[in-house]
């Protein structure tokens, strides 16, 4: 199966501003998904279920960026048949930063951090 990651397509500057605002508002994890160097999809306020997908180092889905009518979109594809009760996960592939976010996915090949 596959589905779209729905959200508002915004530029880097806006994403930085919103990230700070969400932090202030206490929205712990913001749902900002990087598409490329300059475009980020913000699903915080108008996303669909895709934004609740958790990270796993050994995921059953993967995210791919496709261009539909000159607009970049994120599509989540399943890598294998997924059971109804099975949790859907994918590898967030966060950029490497000094401040590490611990990963709690419990996969055998867990990298230990999200970035
Ligand atoms: Zn992990």
Automatic annotation (TrEMBL):
The keyword Mitochondrion does not apply. InterPro entries: Post-SET_dom (IPR003616), Set1-like (IPR044570), SET_dom (IPR001214), SET_dom_sf (IPR046341). Keywords: Chromatin regulator, Methyltransferase, Nucleus, S-adenosyl-L-methionine, Transferase. It is found in: Nucleus. GO terms for molecular function: histone H3K4 methyltransferase activity. Pfam families: SET. GO terms for cellular component: Set1C/COMPASS complex. The keyword Flavoprotein does not apply. Residues 1-93 form the SET domain. Its main location: nucleus. GO terms for biological process: methylation. Residues 99-115 form the Post-SET domain. PANTHER family: HISTONE-LYSINE N-METHYLTRANSFERASE SETD1, HISTONE-LYSINE N-METHYLTRANSFERASE SETD1B. This is SET domain-containing protein. It comes from Sinocyclocheilus rhinocerous.
